[in-house]
Amino acid sequence: MQKHTRGRRFGAHGRRDRGQTAIEYLGWIPILLLVALAAIQLGIAVYAVQQAGTAARAAARTASIDNGSGVQAGKAAMSDWLADGTDVDVSMAGDEVTATAYVEIPSLIPVFAFDRATRSATMPVTDR
User: Fold this and answer.
1) CATH number of the domain where residue 58 is located
2) Among residues 87, 93, 84, 96, which one has the least CA distance to residue 124?
3) Out of the domains of life, which is the source (predicted)?
């Protein structure tokens, strides 16, 4: 025995739902883009902090060996695209050198501003 559908073919309801589903997916796209941008921004911030540590260690190491400033060595140890917005301070106190690197964290969305990433490193001064 066959069931009669009175002018409606089987599957017609499914076609109408496909259009609605596509519109529902369009509603999720801004949320997914925001989550993706937040994840990328978090990665950039973590990378900037890591680069600040690299710059501080390189500056302190160079200053402890050469009795120089080490600022250029700190910036040279970093990625070029972060080195431009970086400040490195080197101070000598007795037989130790402390270098502090301040790195600007780039923002993907210009509306948001972030504090600078700051890392310090201390090395003993070596006699030549």
Assistant:
1) 3.30.1300
2) 96
3) Bacteria
Distance CA 10, CA 2 (A): 13
pTM: 0.76
In one-letter notation, the amino acid at residue 9 is: R
Domain extent at residue 56? 22-124
> Per-residue pLDDT tens for 86-128?
999 999 888 899 999 999 999 988 777 889 999 999 999 886 5
**Is residue 39 included in any domain, yes or no?**
yes
Q: Residue 30 corresponds to which tokens in the numbers above?
A: 């801004």
Strands (E), the chain: 86-93, 96-103, 117-124
Which pLDDT score, from 0 to 100, does residue 74 have?
A: 94
